Amino acid sequence: MDFQRIAISWQLTDTHGWGIFGLNLALRLLRHGPIPPLLLTEPYIIDMPDGVIDELRPSIAEMRQLVGQIEARGEAVYSEQIVVLHALGANFQHTEISDQVRGGRNIGFTFFEEGGFDAEAIARANAYDRVLAGSSWNRDYARDAGVRDIEFVCQGIDADLFQPGTASGAYEGRFAIFSGGKLELRKGQDLVLAAFRIFHQRHPDAVLITSWRNAWPESAAGIAASIHVSGPPDTDAENELDITKWAVANGVPDDAFVDLGWLSNRIMPSVLRDMDAAIFPNRCEGGTNLVAMEAMAVGVPCVLSANTGHLDIIKDDNCYALNDQRLVTGSDERTAMWRESQVEEIVEKLEEIYTDRAQARARAEIGATFMSGFSWENQTGQLVSAIDDLH
C-alpha cells in the first residue's frame, strides 16, 4: 500500500456499532499498521482505560488541528497520500466531513438495512473507488442493484475482552435471557417481548435482561407498527426511552425485566457472562450484528434469525437459528428484503436451551471458538487487504 494514512470519517465511540468498529480499527492501525489512522471526527468515549485514551491523544490532537484548518480556510482538503474511509448511510449518503476531506483514493463503507435504490443512490456509490459492505448480503444486494465495485469485509470483536469466563452469579437461581440493540422495529424487540411473555408463563424463573437504548428516540416509534406490542415506549424528562414501563405495559412482569440502560463496550463481557441465553430475532441486519457476535464470543447460547447479515455468522451448530423466516407484513420496496421470525419458533429455541443445558453449552462453545477467528486484528487485516490494490 503506497498511501501514508487511512482516514476514518465517522465518530469513534465505545457505545454503539459504527463507533466501536471505528475505535477498534483506529487502535489496530496504531498498534500494528501497516499505516497509521487519521481521525476526522471528535471521538466520544465514556469508559475506556487511561492507557487506551493515551494512545489516541496524538491522533485526537491532530484531528482537532486539521478540522480547525478546514474551518479557517472554508474549503475542502485534498491529499493524494491518504485513503479515506467514508461512512455511508441510507441510499449511500455521506456526512459533511466527507465533502471536506478527500483522498487519493476514497472508499465508501456501508451497513444498509433499506434497499430500493434509485439511480442517484447507485451513482453516489459508484463515485467511490470501491465500496466495502458489512455483510455478504449487503454486497450481493448492492451488486444486483448496480454497484460496480463492492466487497464484503466483516467487522470484528475484541478477542481480549470477549471470551468465555466466570459468571458473577448476579442472576443465580434465574434463567437470564439477554437482548440488546437499538430499540426499533428492525431489531425485533417486539418479538422478544412476545416470546418472553409466553416463556415466562411456563418458566417463572426466567428474567429478561435488556440494553435497548436509542440515541434517536423518534426512530423507535416505528415499533408501534408491530402487532405484538401496544404502541412505542414513552420518553422521560431527559428524552430517554422508558423501557421498563413499556415492557410492563406489554405484559412482562416487573420482577422479570431488567433495563441495563446505556452500556460501554468495556463492561459488556461481564454482563454477557451472566446470561443463560441471548436472542436476536432481527428482521434485517446490514452488518453481522456486533452484539450477537460478542455474545457468541463470550460463550452465550444465542438464538439468531436466519436472514440478511446474520447468515454470515450462522455456521453449523454454533447457535440456534430461527429458520422460519417470512415476509414482513406491510413492507415496501425499501424493506422488501426484511424477514419476520415467528414467535412460536423463538419460544421453541428458548425451551431447547432451558431443557437441554448440555447441548446449549456445546453449541455455545462452538460459537465461541468460531468467533475467536474474528479478532479486530484479523478483520483490520482483511480491510487493508480489500483496498491494497488501489494504488
Radius of gyration: 21 Å
The first-to-last residue Cα distance is: 7 Å
What is the helix content?
Answer: 25-40%
Distinct helical segment count: 12
Pairing-aware structural class of the strands and helices? alpha/beta
The CATH class label of the largest domain is: Alpha Beta
Number of domains: 2
The low-confidence runs, each spanning 5 or more residues with pLDDT under 50, are none
Gist?
With 391 residues, the chain is an alpha/beta fold. The protein has helices at residues 17-32, 50-73, 96-100, 119-126, 136-145, 189-202, 243-249, 268-272, 290-298, 343-355, 357-371, 376-387; strands spanning 5-8, 37-39, 77-88, 101-110, 130-133, 150-152, 175-180, 206-211, 257-259, 277-280, 302-305, 320-322, 326-327, 339-340.
Structure characterization notes:
With 391 residues, the chain is of the alpha/beta class. Helices cover 35% and strands 17% of the residues. The protein is built from 12 helices and 14 strands. Helix 9 packs across helix 11. The model has no long low-confidence stretch (mean pLDDT 95).
Which terms summarize this structure?
6-stranded parallel sheet, Rossmann fold, globular, alpha/beta, 14 strands, 17% strand, 391 residues, 2 domains, single chain
Tell me the layout of helices and strands.
Layout: E1 5-8, H1 17-32, E2 37-39, H2 50-73, E3 77-88, H3 96-100, E4 101-110, H4 119-126, E5 130-133, H5 136-145, E6 150-152, E7 175-180, H6 189-202, E8 206-211, H7 243-249, E9 257-259, H8 268-272, E10 277-280, H9 290-298, E11 302-305, E12 320-322, E13 326-327, E14 339-340, H10 343-355, H11 357-371, H12 376-387
Parallel strand pairs: 1-2, 1-3, 3-4, 4-5, 5-6, 7-8, 7-10, 8-9, 10-11, 11-12
Antiparallel strand pairs: 13-14
Helix pairs in contact: 6-10, 9-11
